[in-house]
Amino acid sequence: MTGPTLATRLDGLPAPATIEMARRARELKAEGHDIISLALGEPDFATPAAAVEAAHQAALAGKTKYPPVDGTPELKAAVARKFSRENGLDFAQDELLVCNGGKQVIFNAFMATINPGDEVVVPAPYWVSYPLIARMFGGVPVHPVCDETDGFSLRPERLAAVMTARTKWLVLNFPNNPTGGICSEEDMKGIAEVLRDYPDVWILSDEIYEHLVFDGNRFTSFAAIAPDLRDRVLTMNGVAKAYAMTGWRVGYAGGPKRLIAAMRAVQSNATSGVCTVAQAAAAAALDGPPDLIREMVTTYERRRDLMVSGLREIPGVTCAKPAGAFYVYPGITGLIGRKTPGGRVLDTDTAFCMALLEEAHVATVPGSAFGLAPYVRLSCATADTVLDEALKRIARFIASLV
Ligand SMILES: Cc1ncc(COP(=O)(O)O)c(C=O)c1O
Protein backbone atom coordinates (compact mmCIF):
# COMPACT_ATOMS: atom_id res chain seq x y z
CA MET A 1 0.00 0.00 0.00
CA THR A 2 1.30 3.53 -0.81
CA GLY A 3 0.80 6.77 1.11
CA PRO A 4 1.51 7.78 4.69
CA THR A 5 2.18 4.80 6.95
CA LEU A 6 0.63 3.80 10.26
CA ALA A 7 2.64 3.29 13.45
CA THR A 8 4.40 -0.04 13.75
CA ARG A 9 2.95 -0.37 17.27
CA LEU A 10 -0.33 -1.29 15.60
CA ASP A 11 1.25 -4.07 13.51
CA GLY A 12 -0.36 -7.43 14.09
CA LEU A 13 -3.10 -6.13 16.38
CA PRO A 14 -5.93 -8.48 15.48
CA ALA A 15 -9.39 -7.09 14.75
CA PRO A 16 -11.59 -8.59 17.47
CA ALA A 17 -13.57 -11.61 16.21
CA THR A 18 -16.62 -9.85 17.60
CA ILE A 19 -16.47 -7.23 14.85
CA GLU A 20 -17.16 -9.69 12.02
CA MET A 21 -19.96 -11.25 14.08
CA ALA A 22 -21.51 -7.84 14.79
CA ARG A 23 -21.25 -6.84 11.12
CA ARG A 24 -23.02 -10.01 9.97
CA ALA A 25 -25.69 -9.60 12.67
CA ARG A 26 -26.38 -6.05 11.45
CA GLU A 27 -26.64 -7.27 7.84
CA LEU A 28 -29.10 -10.02 8.76
CA LYS A 29 -31.18 -7.56 10.78
CA ALA A 30 -31.24 -5.14 7.86
CA GLU A 31 -32.53 -8.01 5.69
CA GLY A 32 -35.47 -8.27 8.10
CA HIS A 33 -34.40 -11.30 10.18
CA ASP A 34 -35.34 -11.42 13.85
CA ILE A 35 -31.87 -11.55 15.45
CA ILE A 36 -31.43 -12.15 19.18
CA SER A 37 -28.16 -10.68 20.40
CA LEU A 38 -26.49 -12.19 23.44
CA ALA A 39 -23.18 -10.70 22.35
CA LEU A 40 -23.02 -7.45 24.33
CA GLY A 41 -21.67 -6.93 27.84
CA GLU A 42 -24.06 -4.14 28.71
CA PRO A 43 -26.60 -4.06 31.58
CA ASP A 44 -30.22 -3.76 30.40
CA PHE A 45 -31.16 -1.59 33.41
CA ALA A 46 -31.60 2.19 33.46
CA THR A 47 -29.08 4.54 35.08
CA PRO A 48 -30.32 5.43 38.62
CA ALA A 49 -32.60 8.51 38.51
CA ALA A 50 -30.54 10.19 41.26
CA ALA A 51 -27.44 10.00 39.03
CA VAL A 52 -29.26 11.56 36.06
CA GLU A 53 -30.63 14.28 38.34
CA ALA A 54 -27.17 15.02 39.76
CA ALA A 55 -25.81 15.45 36.22
CA HIS A 56 -28.66 17.82 35.40
CA GLN A 57 -28.08 19.87 38.54
CA ALA A 58 -24.33 20.02 37.92
CA ALA A 59 -24.92 21.37 34.42
CA LEU A 60 -27.43 23.95 35.67
CA ALA A 61 -25.00 25.01 38.40
CA GLY A 62 -22.39 25.80 35.76
CA LYS A 63 -20.09 22.89 36.55
CA THR A 64 -19.20 22.82 32.89
CA LYS A 65 -15.59 24.02 32.86
CA TYR A 66 -12.36 21.98 32.65
CA PRO A 67 -12.21 19.68 35.67
CA PRO A 68 -9.01 18.69 37.49
CA VAL A 69 -7.20 15.94 35.53
CA ASP A 70 -7.45 13.42 38.38
CA GLY A 71 -11.18 13.95 39.08
CA THR A 72 -13.47 16.45 40.81
CA PRO A 73 -12.96 16.68 44.59
CA GLU A 74 -16.60 15.55 45.03
CA LEU A 75 -16.19 12.36 43.00
CA LYS A 76 -12.78 11.56 44.49
CA ALA A 77 -14.29 11.90 47.96
CA ALA A 78 -17.16 9.56 46.94
CA VAL A 79 -14.65 7.07 45.50
CA ALA A 80 -12.59 7.18 48.73
CA ARG A 81 -15.78 6.53 50.76
CA LYS A 82 -16.73 3.65 48.44
CA PHE A 83 -13.32 1.95 48.71
CA SER A 84 -13.36 2.32 52.48
CA ARG A 85 -16.99 1.20 52.97
CA GLU A 86 -17.15 -1.67 50.47
CA ASN A 87 -13.58 -2.89 50.17
CA GLY A 88 -11.89 -1.96 53.45
CA LEU A 89 -9.29 0.02 51.49
CA ASP A 90 -8.29 3.52 52.57
CA PHE A 91 -6.79 5.78 49.93
CA ALA A 92 -5.50 9.35 50.24
CA GLN A 93 -6.58 11.80 47.53
CA ASP A 94 -3.22 11.47 45.71
CA GLU A 95 -3.73 7.71 45.52
CA LEU A 96 -6.92 8.03 43.45
CA LEU A 97 -7.55 8.74 39.75
CA VAL A 98 -10.81 9.17 37.85
CA CYS A 99 -10.67 8.11 34.19
CA ASN A 100 -12.86 7.88 31.08
CA GLY A 101 -14.17 4.44 31.94
CA GLY A 102 -12.32 1.51 33.40
CA LYS A 103 -10.70 1.09 30.02
CA GLN A 104 -8.69 4.29 30.37
CA VAL A 105 -7.41 3.13 33.77
CA ILE A 106 -5.81 0.16 32.00
CA PHE A 107 -4.54 2.28 29.12
CA ASN A 108 -2.95 4.87 31.47
CA ALA A 109 -1.42 2.22 33.70
CA PHE A 110 0.10 0.22 30.85
CA MET A 111 1.36 3.29 28.99
CA ALA A 112 2.95 4.56 32.19
CA THR A 113 4.81 1.31 32.95
CA ILE A 114 5.30 -1.08 30.03
CA ASN A 115 8.57 -1.13 28.10
CA PRO A 116 8.91 -3.22 24.93
CA GLY A 117 9.43 -6.87 25.82
CA ASP A 118 7.82 -6.65 29.27
CA GLU A 119 5.51 -9.59 29.94
CA VAL A 120 1.93 -8.99 31.00
CA VAL A 121 0.28 -12.01 32.59
CA VAL A 122 -3.39 -12.12 31.65
CA PRO A 123 -5.13 -15.33 32.74
CA ALA A 124 -7.31 -16.84 30.00
CA PRO A 125 -10.13 -16.53 29.26
CA TYR A 126 -9.76 -12.75 29.44
CA TRP A 127 -11.47 -9.53 28.50
CA VAL A 128 -9.87 -8.74 25.13
CA SER A 129 -8.69 -5.22 25.95
CA TYR A 130 -5.95 -6.23 28.41
CA PRO A 131 -3.68 -8.00 25.91
CA LEU A 132 -4.51 -5.59 23.10
CA ILE A 133 -3.61 -2.51 25.17
CA ALA A 134 -0.46 -4.22 26.50
CA ARG A 135 0.63 -4.97 22.92
CA MET A 136 0.23 -1.31 21.89
CA PHE A 137 3.13 -0.52 24.23
CA GLY A 138 5.29 -3.46 23.20
CA GLY A 139 4.11 -5.67 26.07
CA VAL A 140 4.06 -9.41 25.55
CA PRO A 141 0.86 -11.03 26.83
CA VAL A 142 1.26 -14.37 28.63
CA HIS A 143 -1.82 -16.46 29.35
CA PRO A 144 -2.04 -19.05 32.12
CA VAL A 145 -5.32 -20.93 31.74
CA CYS A 146 -8.25 -20.89 34.18
CA ASP A 147 -10.01 -24.23 33.68
CA GLU A 148 -13.73 -24.89 33.45
CA THR A 149 -13.23 -27.72 35.98
CA ASP A 150 -11.89 -25.14 38.49
CA GLY A 151 -14.92 -22.87 37.92
CA PHE A 152 -12.52 -20.72 35.84
CA SER A 153 -10.60 -19.68 38.96
CA LEU A 154 -6.86 -18.91 38.67
CA ARG A 155 -4.92 -21.66 40.41
CA PRO A 156 -1.73 -20.29 42.03
CA GLU A 157 0.40 -23.06 40.51
CA ARG A 158 -0.79 -22.06 37.02
CA LEU A 159 0.38 -18.52 37.76
CA ALA A 160 3.70 -19.64 39.24
CA ALA A 161 4.43 -21.61 36.05
CA VAL A 162 4.39 -18.50 33.83
CA MET A 163 6.09 -15.90 36.04
CA THR A 164 9.56 -14.84 34.84
CA ALA A 165 12.12 -12.11 35.46
CA ARG A 166 10.47 -10.22 32.58
CA THR A 167 6.96 -10.20 34.13
CA LYS A 168 5.78 -6.60 34.60
CA TRP A 169 2.08 -6.99 35.36
CA LEU A 170 -0.42 -9.56 36.54
CA VAL A 171 -4.03 -8.80 35.64
CA LEU A 172 -6.75 -10.22 37.91
CA ASN A 173 -10.39 -9.92 36.88
CA PHE A 174 -12.83 -11.67 39.19
CA PRO A 175 -15.82 -11.93 38.80
CA ASN A 176 -14.60 -12.51 35.29
CA ASN A 177 -15.61 -11.40 31.85
CA PRO A 178 -16.19 -13.72 29.89
CA THR A 179 -16.70 -16.67 32.28
CA GLY A 180 -18.43 -15.18 35.34
CA GLY A 181 -15.89 -17.16 37.38
CA ILE A 182 -14.65 -15.93 40.74
CA CYS A 183 -11.41 -16.71 42.54
CA SER A 184 -11.73 -18.24 46.02
CA GLU A 185 -10.10 -16.43 48.91
CA GLU A 186 -7.77 -19.42 49.26
CA ASP A 187 -6.66 -19.13 45.60
CA MET A 188 -6.22 -15.34 46.05
CA LYS A 189 -3.96 -15.99 49.05
CA GLY A 190 -1.99 -18.51 46.98
CA ILE A 191 -1.65 -15.95 44.18
CA ALA A 192 -0.37 -13.37 46.67
CA GLU A 193 2.17 -15.91 47.90
CA VAL A 194 3.46 -16.40 44.34
CA LEU A 195 3.72 -12.62 43.89
CA ARG A 196 5.81 -12.19 47.04
CA ASP A 197 8.66 -13.85 45.14
CA TYR A 198 8.37 -11.22 42.38
CA PRO A 199 8.68 -7.78 44.04
CA ASP A 200 9.00 -5.96 40.69
CA VAL A 201 5.57 -6.99 39.38
CA TRP A 202 2.59 -4.64 39.37
CA ILE A 203 -0.86 -6.13 39.99
CA LEU A 204 -4.02 -4.83 38.34
CA SER A 205 -7.17 -5.97 40.10
CA ASP A 206 -10.12 -5.19 37.82
CA GLU A 207 -13.09 -5.33 40.20
CA ILE A 208 -15.72 -3.88 37.87
CA TYR A 209 -18.09 -6.84 38.44
CA GLU A 210 -17.53 -6.96 42.24
CA HIS A 211 -21.20 -6.49 43.16
CA LEU A 212 -22.46 -9.18 40.82
CA VAL A 213 -21.77 -12.30 42.90
CA PHE A 214 -24.32 -15.05 43.55
CA ASP A 215 -25.12 -17.96 45.86
CA GLY A 216 -24.21 -15.98 48.97
CA ASN A 217 -20.57 -15.61 47.84
CA ARG A 218 -18.81 -12.56 49.24
CA PHE A 219 -16.40 -10.47 47.20
CA THR A 220 -13.06 -9.42 48.68
CA SER A 221 -10.63 -7.02 47.03
CA PHE A 222 -7.21 -8.44 46.26
CA ALA A 223 -5.51 -5.49 48.04
CA ALA A 224 -7.48 -6.33 51.20
CA ILE A 225 -6.43 -10.00 51.00
CA ALA A 226 -2.75 -9.11 50.63
CA PRO A 227 -2.22 -5.74 52.40
CA ASP A 228 1.55 -6.24 52.32
CA LEU A 229 1.42 -5.97 48.48
CA ARG A 230 -0.56 -2.74 48.46
CA ASP A 231 2.34 -0.61 47.26
CA ARG A 232 2.08 -2.38 43.89
CA VAL A 233 -1.63 -3.14 43.56
CA LEU A 234 -3.81 -0.97 41.34
CA THR A 235 -7.46 -1.55 42.24
CA MET A 236 -9.76 -0.49 39.44
CA ASN A 237 -13.48 -0.16 39.20
CA GLY A 238 -16.15 1.95 37.51
CA VAL A 239 -19.83 2.78 37.41
CA ALA A 240 -20.55 1.03 34.08
CA LYS A 241 -21.66 -2.39 35.29
CA ALA A 242 -22.72 -1.77 38.92
CA TYR A 243 -24.95 1.21 38.09
CA ALA A 244 -25.83 0.53 34.45
CA MET A 245 -23.84 3.62 33.41
CA THR A 246 -21.82 2.31 30.45
CA GLY A 247 -22.34 5.47 28.38
CA TRP A 248 -21.26 7.92 31.09
CA ARG A 249 -17.65 6.77 30.80
CA VAL A 250 -16.49 6.98 34.38
CA GLY A 251 -13.96 4.58 35.83
CA TYR A 252 -11.57 5.00 38.74
CA ALA A 253 -8.57 3.46 40.41
CA GLY A 254 -6.83 3.47 43.76
CA GLY A 255 -3.16 2.61 44.00
CA PRO A 256 0.29 3.69 45.06
CA LYS A 257 0.97 7.41 44.75
CA ARG A 258 3.93 6.90 42.39
CA LEU A 259 1.87 4.90 39.88
CA ILE A 260 -1.19 7.14 40.16
CA ALA A 261 0.98 10.23 39.49
CA ALA A 262 2.42 8.61 36.34
CA MET A 263 -1.07 7.61 35.13
CA ARG A 264 -2.31 11.14 35.80
CA ALA A 265 0.54 12.48 33.64
CA VAL A 266 -0.51 10.17 30.79
CA GLN A 267 -4.14 11.23 31.11
CA SER A 268 -3.29 14.94 31.23
CA ASN A 269 -1.78 14.60 27.77
CA ALA A 270 -4.55 12.43 26.36
CA THR A 271 -8.02 13.39 27.53
CA SER A 272 -7.55 15.66 30.58
CA GLY A 273 -10.22 15.26 33.25
CA VAL A 274 -13.46 13.35 32.73
CA CYS A 275 -16.68 15.13 31.67
CA THR A 276 -17.87 17.15 34.69
CA VAL A 277 -21.55 16.22 34.56
CA ALA A 278 -20.70 12.53 34.22
CA GLN A 279 -18.51 12.83 37.32
CA ALA A 280 -21.41 14.40 39.24
CA ALA A 281 -23.64 11.50 38.15
CA ALA A 282 -21.04 8.93 39.19
CA ALA A 283 -20.65 10.52 42.65
CA ALA A 284 -24.42 10.36 43.18
CA ALA A 285 -24.49 6.71 42.07
CA LEU A 286 -21.65 5.72 44.42
CA ASP A 287 -23.28 7.52 47.37
CA GLY A 288 -26.78 6.25 46.50
CA PRO A 289 -28.78 3.49 48.19
CA PRO A 290 -27.74 -0.10 47.34
CA ASP A 291 -31.28 -1.21 46.25
CA LEU A 292 -30.59 -1.00 42.52
CA ILE A 293 -27.57 -3.26 42.86
CA ARG A 294 -29.55 -5.77 44.96
CA GLU A 295 -32.32 -5.84 42.34
CA MET A 296 -29.76 -6.39 39.56
CA VAL A 297 -28.05 -9.22 41.42
CA THR A 298 -31.36 -11.03 41.97
CA THR A 299 -32.28 -10.61 38.32
CA TYR A 300 -28.90 -11.74 36.97
CA GLU A 301 -28.86 -14.73 39.32
CA ARG A 302 -32.31 -15.83 38.09
CA ARG A 303 -31.21 -15.43 34.46
CA ARG A 304 -27.98 -17.32 35.10
CA ASP A 305 -29.99 -20.24 36.54
CA LEU A 306 -32.29 -20.19 33.52
CA MET A 307 -29.38 -20.23 31.07
CA VAL A 308 -27.26 -22.80 32.89
CA SER A 309 -30.11 -25.30 33.31
CA GLY A 310 -31.25 -24.79 29.70
CA LEU A 311 -27.73 -25.23 28.31
CA ARG A 312 -26.97 -28.28 30.45
CA GLU A 313 -29.95 -30.07 28.90
CA ILE A 314 -28.42 -29.79 25.44
CA PRO A 315 -26.34 -32.85 24.43
CA GLY A 316 -22.74 -31.94 23.53
CA VAL A 317 -22.72 -28.79 25.69
CA THR A 318 -21.03 -28.41 29.09
CA CYS A 319 -21.73 -25.43 31.32
CA ALA A 320 -19.98 -24.41 34.54
CA LYS A 321 -22.25 -22.40 36.84
CA PRO A 322 -20.86 -18.85 36.92
CA ALA A 323 -20.54 -17.48 40.44
CA GLY A 324 -20.75 -13.87 39.25
CA ALA A 325 -21.01 -11.23 36.49
CA PHE A 326 -23.67 -11.61 33.78
CA TYR A 327 -22.20 -14.10 31.33
CA VAL A 328 -22.29 -17.85 30.85
CA TYR A 329 -19.44 -19.62 29.07
CA PRO A 330 -20.57 -23.05 27.86
CA GLY A 331 -18.07 -25.49 26.37
CA ILE A 332 -18.81 -27.00 22.95
CA THR A 333 -16.02 -29.57 22.54
CA GLY A 334 -18.74 -32.17 21.94
CA LEU A 335 -20.00 -30.31 18.88
CA ILE A 336 -16.72 -29.64 17.10
CA GLY A 337 -16.57 -31.50 13.77
CA ARG A 338 -20.36 -31.78 13.38
CA LYS A 339 -22.16 -30.35 10.32
CA THR A 340 -25.15 -28.04 9.98
CA PRO A 341 -28.06 -29.04 7.71
CA GLY A 342 -26.75 -26.29 5.40
CA GLY A 343 -23.50 -28.27 5.07
CA ARG A 344 -21.12 -26.09 7.13
CA VAL A 345 -18.51 -27.95 9.12
CA LEU A 346 -18.25 -26.67 12.69
CA ASP A 347 -14.50 -27.04 13.04
CA THR A 348 -14.01 -24.15 15.53
CA ASP A 349 -16.09 -22.16 18.01
CA THR A 350 -15.95 -19.24 15.57
CA ALA A 351 -17.56 -21.43 12.88
CA PHE A 352 -20.15 -22.56 15.44
CA CYS A 353 -21.05 -18.98 16.42
CA MET A 354 -21.24 -17.83 12.80
CA ALA A 355 -23.51 -20.76 11.88
CA LEU A 356 -25.66 -20.15 14.98
CA LEU A 357 -26.05 -16.55 13.84
CA GLU A 358 -26.74 -17.32 10.18
CA GLU A 359 -28.97 -20.35 10.65
CA ALA A 360 -30.60 -19.82 14.08
CA HIS A 361 -30.35 -16.03 14.33
CA VAL A 362 -28.67 -15.86 17.74
CA ALA A 363 -25.59 -13.62 18.03
CA THR A 364 -22.91 -14.73 20.51
CA VAL A 365 -19.12 -14.44 20.83
CA PRO A 366 -16.75 -17.38 20.31
CA GLY A 367 -14.45 -18.31 23.18
CA SER A 368 -11.43 -18.05 20.90
CA ALA A 369 -11.89 -14.25 21.04
CA PHE A 370 -11.23 -14.49 24.80
CA GLY A 371 -8.31 -16.91 24.58
CA LEU A 372 -9.98 -20.20 25.53
CA ALA A 373 -11.70 -22.39 22.91
CA PRO A 374 -13.97 -24.07 22.06
CA TYR A 375 -16.44 -22.07 24.14
CA VAL A 376 -19.19 -19.54 23.53
CA ARG A 377 -19.87 -16.44 25.60
CA LEU A 378 -23.53 -15.62 26.13
CA SER A 379 -24.55 -12.43 27.89
CA CYS A 380 -27.49 -12.71 30.32
CA ALA A 381 -28.06 -8.95 30.35
CA THR A 382 -31.37 -9.23 28.54
CA ALA A 383 -35.01 -10.07 29.41
CA ASP A 384 -35.89 -13.60 30.60
CA THR A 385 -38.31 -14.06 27.69
CA VAL A 386 -35.57 -13.25 25.19
CA LEU A 387 -33.17 -15.64 26.92
CA ASP A 388 -35.87 -18.33 26.82
CA GLU A 389 -36.35 -17.88 23.08
CA ALA A 390 -32.57 -17.86 22.52
CA LEU A 391 -32.24 -21.16 24.43
CA LYS A 392 -34.97 -22.71 22.27
CA ARG A 393 -33.21 -21.60 19.09
CA ILE A 394 -29.83 -22.85 20.32
CA ALA A 395 -31.30 -26.25 21.34
CA ARG A 396 -33.10 -26.61 17.99
CA PHE A 397 -29.95 -25.63 16.07
CA ILE A 398 -27.79 -28.14 17.93
CA ALA A 399 -30.42 -30.88 17.55
CA SER A 400 -30.31 -30.31 13.78
CA LEU A 401 -26.53 -30.94 13.53
CA VAL A 402 -25.40 -34.09 11.77
C1 LIG B 1 -13.66 -6.83 32.76
C2 LIG B 1 -13.95 -5.45 32.28
N1 LIG B 1 -13.18 -4.44 32.72
C3 LIG B 1 -13.39 -3.18 32.31
C4 LIG B 1 -14.39 -2.88 31.43
C5 LIG B 1 -14.49 -1.46 30.93
O1 LIG B 1 -15.44 -0.76 31.49
P1 LIG B 1 -15.69 0.76 31.09
O2 LIG B 1 -16.95 0.74 30.30
O3 LIG B 1 -15.81 1.44 32.41
O4 LIG B 1 -14.53 1.25 30.30
C6 LIG B 1 -15.22 -3.90 30.93
C7 LIG B 1 -16.26 -3.61 29.95
O5 LIG B 1 -16.78 -4.45 29.27
C8 LIG B 1 -14.99 -5.21 31.39
O6 LIG B 1 -15.75 -6.24 30.96
TrEMBL record:
Q: Cite the PANTHER family for this sequence.
A: ASPARTATE AMINOTRANSFERASE
| Location of the Aminotransferase class I/classII large domain | 34-394
Q: Return the similarity comment.
A: Belongs to the class-I pyridoxal-phosphate-dependent aminotransferase family.
Keyword check for Endoplasmic reticulum, yes or no: no
Higher taxonomy: Bacteria, Pseudomonadati, Pseudomonadota, Alphaproteobacteria, Acetobacterales
InterPro entries for this protein: Aminotransferase_I/II_large (IPR004839), AspAT/PAT-like (IPR050596), NHTrfase_class1_PyrdxlP-BS (IPR004838), PyrdxlP-dep_Trfase (IPR015424), PyrdxlP-dep_Trfase_major (IPR015421), PyrdxlP-dep_Trfase_small (IPR015422)
* Key words, A-Z: Aminotransferase, Pyridoxal phosphate, Transferase
> Known catalysed reaction(s)?
L-aspartate + 2-oxoglutarate = oxaloacetate + L-glutamate
Cofactor list: pyridoxal 5'-phosphate
Which Pfam families does the record cross-reference, listed alphabetically? Aminotran_1_2
A single MF term (Gene Ontology): transaminase activity
Keyword Transferase listed: yes
Enzyme Commission code(s) on record: 2.6.1.-
Q: What's the protein called, per UniProt?
A: Aminotransferase
